TrEMBL record:
Native species: Poecilia mexicana
Biological process according to GO: inflammatory response; phospholipase C-activating G protein-coupled receptor signaling pathway; positive regulation of cytosolic calcium ion concentration
GO cellular component terms attached to this protein's record: plasma membrane
The protein's name: G-protein coupled receptors family 1 profile domain-containing protein
PANTHER family: CHEMOTACTIC RECEPTOR (PTHR24225), G-PROTEIN COUPLED RECEPTORS FAMILY 1 PROFILE DOMAIN-CONTAINING PROTEIN-RELATED (PTHR24225:SF72)
UniProt-listed PROSITE patterns: G_PROTEIN_RECEP_F1_2 (PS50262)
Compositionally biased residues, Basic and acidic residues: 337-353
Pfam families cross-referenced by the UniProt entry: 7tm_1
Signal peptide (UniProt feature, chain positions): none
Principal cellular location given in the protein's record: membrane
Amino acid sequence: MAPSLSGTQMPPNSSSCMINDSIVSTPAATVTGTLILSAVFLLGFPGNLFVIWSILARARKQSVTTLLILNLAIADGSLMALTPFFIAYLAMMDWKMGTVMCKVLFYLCLANMYASIQLIMLMSIYRLVSVVWPQRISVITGKRTIMRVLGVMWLLVMVASIPALIYRDARLNKERNRTVCDSFHDKDPDVVLQYMLEIVLGFVVPYGVILVSYICILRRIRQTRFRRRIRSEKLILAIVVTFCLFWLPYHIINMVQVASALLPECSPKRLLLEKIWKKFRAVTSTIAFISSCANPVLYFFAGKSYIRREGLAFMARLFEGTGLDSTRKSQMNSQNSRDKDKDAEVVLQDKDSSTNSNSIIKSAKTGK
């Protein structure tokens, strides 16, 4: 028979903050999880706060890329602010904060996952437009347009995260005599719905857009004479790759759990897949959690050349540089187009002058 969804067999949670019964089941796992989350908090919380402060207080001009990075830091910083609750959960090996906090905290965690990947997708789309269609960049760089896009994105993120409020609950594990904040599914269709939503909205669609965007960008760069890898491309590509490395294992486990739910109960394949996702859910979830503290580290290494010259403002100068790269490139392309037009105009004028001169000479000869 398939494992029961109550009592001792509780499915690990499904949100992006993956502290579940398997993590707090043994002292060794508890100590390991506590140390990892503590390190993530000590690195990620002040790191994201520094990014936010750098953009708001030190950046002289906020470009589209800078605004997207600001929103990404706010999302990650908010998640880092919740980390102490999960550290306490691990330390006590018991959920003491009730059902409401269980739902709210994990709702915010799932919203962070969606917000992060959607913002990275928007960065990729912006780079695509600025490189492939630089003449249209002014259409999407208006402050009002960007604010509307970000507002719609956050609204969609909040709506997409509602399943965490529905399925998340704090229940008593009678055998171990402790309360667990977990995601409970009474039917296989609920498992498929929740995890497929995370897979499609949190990985397949955004990464499909990101992949297509960068393929078009690379093709465009190869076609132009400006083949130098600009700073903003390197930084945003590093953010994309890092996020994928941290989240891909988690979404693979989601796929495994969906596949197990679609198979007949008690079948050998289903039992094997259930064993796999239950064994690796905690590991992949912890890896995914680390992603929220990775971006400040990337920014530090990308902007370390500014530290001696700019001091605490080094990160602001870095973000200003990423914004100026696309602007300069667009201006350069526009200038080249204008230069070509001027050259063509001069050639035409020369031809006209030459034609007029020849006509005068012929007329003079005829008169003679």
